[in-house]
Amino acid sequence: xxxxxxxxxxxxxxxxxxxxxxxxxxxxxxxxxxxxxxxxxxxxxxxxxxxxxxxxxxxxxxxxxxxxxxxxxxxxxxxxxxxxxxxxxxxxxxxxxxxxxxxxxxxxxxxxxxxxxxxxxxxxxxxxxxxxxxxxxxxxxxxxxxxxxxxxxxxxxxxxxxxxxxxxxxxxxxxxxxxxxxxxxxxxxxxxxxxxxxxxx
Length: 201
Hints:
The chain is built from 8 helices and no strands. It is mainly α. It has one domain. α6 packs across α8 (162-195). The mean pLDDT is 82.
């Protein structure tokens, strides 16, 4: 794997961990344990994800997240609780992918991985908070299910095709930033509307 492919894979996994940290760790660990992901020598640090204990804990976390994410406002509370875990998890996953013999790229991967995971998390949390303003719970369940399918599908594609991983990372980053901007503008508009026009007196 070349540097671009490795950075693409690291970026994709980091961004996806900003959406679903536990599912990302679970799918990656299972893929490695079953031999679906053949790892180069310098990625041996990632083999810790294939440990049965790590897979088990990630599985429990993924189930809890799957259920919590379907309940209106509980999903936002879950996002708030994971505001630190997702960026740190994304940073550590990116760190584990890059060649440990090059400290410079390790630092770059850690910073970019954490930043990417935080951007994805912020975009997801902002979008879900906006969806929660809808009085019916169906949209919440639909959006959450779409996130589940997209996370697992994009993760599988990123693992199977490192070149596609770079494209996925770029698209997800742009999408996350766009979500943050759109939701931020919507909130500003709503707050401005609630204040009403200034008193002429």
